[in-house]
Amino acid sequence: MTKWLGAFMLECKNIGFYYNRSNWLFRNIHLSIERGEIIGIYGKSGSGKTTLAKIMANYLSPTEGEVLVDGEKSNHSEVYPVQLIWQHPEQAINPKWKLSKIFEEAKELDQDIPSILGIKEEWLNRRAHELSGGELQRFCIARAFHPDTRYIIADEITSMFDAITQAQIWHALIRLVKERNIGVLAISHHISLLERISDRIIDFNQLKGASEKSF
Amino acid sequence: MHVYELNHETQEELEKIQNNLLLEVKNLSLTIERFGKGWTRERLYVIRDFHLKIHHGEVVAIVGASGSGKSLLADAILGIHPKNSIVDGMIKYENELLTEKRRKRLRGNDILLIPQMTNALDPLMKVGKQVKTLMKQNNHQKAVKQIFQKVGLDPDVYDQIPSACSGGMIRKIFIAMALASEAKLIIADEPTNGLDYESIDEMLFQIKMLEKDNKGVIMITHDLEAAMKVADKIAVFYAGETVEVVDKKHLKKGGKFRHPYSRALWNALPQNGFIAIDSTQPSATEKLTGCSFAKQCPKATKKCKIEKPLLKEISHDEMVRCFYAGM
Amino acid sequence: MKNQYLSIDFDSTNYKRRILWKIIGLVCLFLLVALSGFWIGEEQIEANMGEKHLSPSLDHPFGTDWLGRDMFFRTLLGLHLSWKVGLFAAVISTVIALTLSLLSSINKFFDSLVTMLIDLFLSIPHLVALILIAFVLGGGVKGIVIGIAFTHWPSLTRVLRAEILQIKSSEYVHISKKLGKSRMWIIRHHYLPQLAPQLFVGFILLFPHAILHESAITFLGFGLSPEQPAIGIILSEAMKYLTMGMWWLVVFPGLSLFGMVVIFDALGNNLRKLLNPN
């Protein structure tokens, strides 16, 4: 059993990143997320949380260190097992598309996902500008639940929405994640939200700080 | 039926309040017409029935769901709404009807909008100069730098161009502009969006600073928590309507929101109950007959589905739109 | 106490409808001219020595020339030919522009290659490059079409390239990539739908350029051969007779050419307004 637990993890090993050589955004980040676990991470804006999210979802390559998905480096050409959900859904959906195409994009989506997320039939025929941000974000979340997804990074996914929408989205997301045994890294500045949704909470500054000492 | 105790204000007091009135909006509606499928036209009732009163030296927060048409509110008040829309209703500024002509004159002078986008500054002009142009008297660099210090900006920012500033800094620059100007009414569209916890507190503090300057501030936001921290009054906006206006004093004394939607919003906050009611707002294309919240409301009766509740006044400027408010 | 302050008519819908009518009108007008060429037979422009040098009348609205040919039908045929040349040239140009702009999206190397080509072609004056290409290919319709097609792609390519660059950096394209979508899938589903309006408008706006250049180099004698009824030929022939006071030989064909160009330009601009309201 312990062997299994060790293997099914999203691991950041010694990650460091800079845009500019003289100024590391962060270094020596160690972080691991188990399958089925929700980890909350908070910190100031501009501290590099989003950059870390992008590195973990393979949008950026780390300057040093590596990200291991279930013990191995993942392949580029396939569906990446770590999916990132962005803060602004209106930028994450092609404005020319009808929303039904989002499901086409993430083919083989489980039948019950749209209804759990509260996606209504009549939204499918519309385009992005005809729906509100909260409604669009549900599509973005649905898309992230591709059958090959094993981990999800949620970067401030509800910070633009009102409390009811936020609660609805997170209740649905937690249910989907637990049913499918998916690991989640939830990034937010909203600590009381993280307290509600996470199994474990990490202060990003501490995560950075801990490593700074070991420089 | 629950009966409210009306505040007994003397004639004199009422007059004083009336004189202090900065902006009054009644029955404001905004309808957009656009092309639906093919060449059919479709009407969007973005704002259906909006009411608001704001006095000098007061912060009123308009709290509503994302996609409830909040951001068009500011545009409707300022008269910069999209071309394909009609605005109807009554707006009074300092007890005088706000006509198109008058609005043009006031816009940017007496009434200032703090936009949500951070790309609203002139990208080529030094930040300090842009603030300075708003000042009528005291037109010195020094005065601007003093204001910068007040809002927590480094005076050196004066010589920077907007692209060198972070989003948080730009928001502070907007506040500095509001302070520098002679505007009496500031409309801030989602001022806390995308800010982290500390920056939100800082922003709220700065909004308070505007209030102390005897300016009226309308803060449009989806964040009930931030609204409760800073506002004197909270207007709750749902499906294009004002459903409730509540004084913060009432909440401070332990009172609850009166409208079921506001209560649901409050209960959905992570620190309160994180309860998600099963709801989506009626879409703007729907013509509503009954109460806009009837379908989602736990207390809705037959009456709610047929008859539209009017906005009842509870005290001088507290209002609620519900047959069974407070029960 | 209500005051209804703002304009009651919903401006933008009427505006859209107005533009649509304009477009329909322009298309009809244009089809009338362009397709008329198919009906005009040889007999209408036969030489008729009995009716030489006639000034405009009801029988011959544009007058007749030194061989007694009806100038009205000659002009229509000329426009028809110009339209065909324009069509071919614009299609080829648009295809080149699309191919190159997609090529530039592959990686930095191809991008700088394409940018270099654009700059190279833009640095040579159109007419000079056009004359060179047409001359090398031996003139005629083929020479002109290829010449025009190969000189008119750069500006459209530049527009398309900028558009693709923007789409490429958008979040939804990144997400598609992470969902394992291939480059072809992204081109088909993300790039092409967003490029379609630009492509279409670009294509329409290429016409007037193509037509004017065709006439210009034909007039200069590098283009179509004298027996073809092109506007450029009509104009250059007419120059000799202008001094004899036969103004109609130049004025009507010239105006018709101008009219055709204006129609296309208006069509392109109106389409652009309809497709991207900003």
Automatic annotation (TrEMBL), chain A:
Sample GO molecular function, one term: ATP binding
Keywords from the named record: ATP-binding, Nucleotide-binding, Transport
InterPro entries documented for this protein: AAA+_ATPase (IPR003593), ABC_transp_ATP-bind (IPR050319), ABC_transporter-like_ATP-bd (IPR003439), ABC_transporter-like_CS (IPR017871), P-loop_NTPase (IPR027417)
Domain ABC transporter: start-end pairs: 10-215
Keyword Transport belongs to the record: yes
SUPFAM superfamilies listed in its UniProt record: P-loop containing nucleoside triphosphate hydrolases (SSF52540)
Listed GO biological process terms: transmembrane transport
Family under the similarity heading: Belongs to the ABC transporter superfamily.
Protein's UniProt name: Peptide/nickel transport system ATP-binding protein
Top-level taxonomy: Bacteria, Bacillati, Bacillota, Bacilli, Bacillales
From TrEMBL, chain B:
InterPro entries linked: AAA+_ATPase (IPR003593), ABC_Ni/Peptide_Import (IPR050388), ABC_transporter-like_ATP-bd (IPR003439), ABC_transporter-like_CS (IPR017871), Oligopep_ABC_C (IPR013563), P-loop_NTPase (IPR027417)
Membrane topology according to the record: Peripheral membrane protein
Protein's UniProt keywords contain Nucleotide-binding: yes
Catalyzed reactions per annotation: Ni(2+)(out) + ATP + H2O = Ni(2+)(in) + ADP + phosphate + H(+)
Gene Ontology terms, MF aspect: ABC-type nickel transporter activity; ATP binding; ATP hydrolysis activity
Coiled coil: none
Domain ABC transporter residues, every copy: 23-264
Family affiliation: Belongs to the ABC transporter superfamily.
Protein name: Nickel import system ATP-binding protein NikD
UniProtKB/TrEMBL annotation, chain C:
Membrane topology: Multi-pass membrane protein
GO biological-process terms attached to the record: transmembrane transport
Principal subcellular localization: membrane
InterPro entries: BP-dependent_transpt_permease, MetI-like, MetI-like_sf
Coiled coil ranges: none
Transmembrane as UniProt keyword: yes
Keyword field: Cell membrane, Membrane, Transmembrane, Transmembrane helix, Transport
A cellular component annotation (GO) from this entry: plasma membrane
SUPFAM superfamilies: MetI-like
ABC transmembrane type-1 domain location: 79-268
UniProt-annotated location(s): Cell membrane
A Pfam family hit: BPD_transp_1
Entry's transmembrane regions: 20-40, 81-104, 246-267
Similarity remark: Belongs to the binding-protein-dependent transport system permease family.
Matches recorded under PANTHER family: ABC TRANSPORTER, OLIGOPEPTIDE TRANSPORT SYSTEM PERMEASE PROTEIN APPC
UniProt-recorded name of the protein: Peptide/nickel transport system permease protein
